[in-house]
């Protein structure tokens, strides 16, 4: 029940010891402030990692051939392994129950592209239609490669937004325009954007059959990329991707006479497994931040508890008189708890607001590859307020209990 007299007592007590009250409040406020800053930083790390994985499909499996590092079946070290169309075709048939999206890739890192007076070097990739989804690319104009382009060796090209802005000035529409790519003419049929930004948008895609023919590659491919069917949950999806990776590695190593334990001859990258490992690490970082923040808050709460013990000692006679006049132990406890919770909540709330304001004004300007949008969401703020209330009650309980145990005759007799 609201009591004006109780609040008057609290404010009078705080006013008598302004410096002590301020220092105690600062210790609590700094604890909450540090906690909010650390939690915002933890979210920034997590957001940054999520942004990195948004560049491609999160369940992507990529395969590259390398150079053998171990002798096997009479074949020496240093042998170049070459993936071919047949590897891609056999793989997609054999593992069709695992695979959702699929594409072989033939890439040229420095393809010279010319449009009128504009020229530039960009990565040229020959791919299948599914590669749009594996790369998480979004078509903004036109379309992506289709199966007809591959079957008929069409000279169609899809360009990234960065390529479009470099070659087509003054807002010229790229669709239907012809580009000279390493001496061959291609028609622009699509423009795409990519979450990875300009680095990912500095590429062009052409049908893989056209690329192999244009660059005299025969049936050679540089790599293969797959996404897997969605699992029932994250752990199940990771387990299935690991099983697919192991079976794919065994299959391809057997086809190319590679030693089973030769890690350099065939590189398989499992983004889902990487995501799990990184999320475990970031979860540990956030847990550590919570631990540091809570420890800082505890230090402030201990300070509040010590102050309340001093207050109880100073008001021993007053408490004795209250009890002699009929005040119950419960009313004494609530009086002390009320003051402790008030100090803790007001100081902590100030620290909470200060921390939120820091991330509100500074957060949008903090950007790095693995750190972006540091923020503290509403649920965390509510959790912090609950921690404050519990901390205030905890800080005042021991002093309040001690006050309730004071005997009136002893309190009145003491100096």
TrEMBL record:
<dbReference type="Pfam" id="PF02687">
    <property type="entry name" value="FtsX"/>
</dbReference>
<dbReference type="InterPro" id="IPR003838">
    <property type="entry name" value="ABC3_permease_C"/>
</dbReference>
<dbReference type="InterPro" id="IPR025857">
    <property type="entry name" value="MacB_PCD"/>
</dbReference>
<feature type="transmembrane region" description="Helical">
    <location>
        <begin position="287"/>
        <end position="312"/>
    </location>
</feature>
<keyword id="KW-0812">Transmembrane</keyword>
<dbReference type="Pfam" id="PF12704">
    <property type="entry name" value="MacB_PCD"/>
</dbReference>
<keyword id="KW-1003">Cell membrane</keyword>
<keyword id="KW-0472">Membrane</keyword>
<feature type="transmembrane region" description="Helical">
    <location>
        <begin position="378"/>
        <end position="398"/>
    </location>
</feature>
<feature type="domain" description="ABC3 transporter permease C-terminal">
    <location>
        <begin position="291"/>
        <end position="407"/>
    </location>
</feature>
<keyword id="KW-1133">Transmembrane helix</keyword>
<comment type="similarity">
    <text>Belongs to the ABC-4 integral membrane protein family.</text>
</comment>
<feature type="transmembrane region" description="Helical">
    <location>
        <begin position="21"/>
        <end position="42"/>
    </location>
</feature>
<dbReference type="InterPro" id="IPR050250">
    <property type="entry name" value="Macrolide_Exporter_MacB"/>
</dbReference>
<protein>
    <submittedName>
        <fullName>ABC transporter permease</fullName>
    </submittedName>
</protein>
<feature type="domain" description="MacB-like periplasmic core">
    <location>
        <begin position="21"/>
        <end position="241"/>
    </location>
</feature>
<feature type="transmembrane region" description="Helical">
    <location>
        <begin position="332"/>
        <end position="358"/>
    </location>
</feature>
């Amino acid at each position: 029940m609201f009591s004006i007299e109780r609040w008057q007592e609290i404010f009078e007590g705080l006013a008598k010891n302004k410096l002590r009250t301020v220092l105690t409040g600062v210790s609590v406020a700094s604890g909450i402030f540090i906690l909010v800053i650390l939690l915002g930083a933890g979210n920034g790390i997590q957001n940054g990692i999520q942004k990195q994985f948004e560049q491609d499909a999160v369940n992507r499996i990529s395969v590259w051939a390398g150079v053998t590092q171990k002798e096997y079946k009479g074949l020496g070290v240093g042998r170049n392994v070459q993936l071919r169309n047949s590897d891609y075709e056999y793989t997609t048939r054999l593992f069709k129950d695992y695979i959702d999206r699929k594409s072989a890739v033939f890439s040229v890192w420095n393809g010279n592209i010319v449009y009128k007076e504009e020229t530039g070097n960009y990565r040229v990739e020959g791919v299948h239609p599914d590669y749009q989804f594996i790369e998480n690319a979004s078509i903004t104009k036109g379309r992506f490669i289709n199966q007809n382009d591959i079957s008929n060796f069409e000279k169609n090209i899809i360009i990234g937004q960065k390529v479009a802005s470099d070659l087509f000035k003054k807002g010229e529409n790229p669709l239907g325009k012809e580009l000279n790519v390493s001496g061959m003419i291609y028609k622009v049929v699509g423009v795409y954007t990519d979450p990875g930004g300009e680095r990912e948008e500095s590429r062009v895609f052409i049908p893989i059959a056209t690329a192999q023919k244009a660059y005299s590659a025969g049936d050679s491919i540089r790599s293969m990329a797959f996404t897997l069917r969605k699992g029932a949950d994250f752990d199940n999806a990771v387990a299935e991707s690991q099983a697919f990776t192991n079976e794919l590695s065994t299959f391809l190593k057997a086809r190319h006479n590679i030693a089973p334990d030769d890690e350099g001859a065939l590189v398989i990258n499992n983004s889902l497994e990487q995501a799990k490992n990184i999320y475990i690490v970031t979860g540990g970082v956030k847990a550590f931040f919570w631990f540091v923040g809570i420890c800082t808050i505890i230090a402030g709460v201990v300070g509040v508890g010590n102050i309340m013990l001093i207050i109880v000692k100073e008001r021993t006679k007053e408490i004795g008189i209250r009890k002699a006049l009929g005040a119950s132990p419960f009313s004494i406890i609530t009086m002390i708890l009320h003051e402790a919770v008030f100090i803790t909540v007001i100081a902590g709330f100030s620290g909470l607001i200060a921390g939120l304001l820091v991330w509100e004004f500074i957060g949008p300007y903090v950007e790095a590859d693995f750190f972006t949008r540091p923020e503290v969401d509403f649920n965390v703020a509510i959790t912090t307020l609950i921690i404050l209330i519990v901390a205030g009650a905890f800080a005042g309980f021991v002093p309040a209990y001690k006050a309730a145990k004071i005997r009136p005759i002893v309190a009145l007799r003491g100096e």
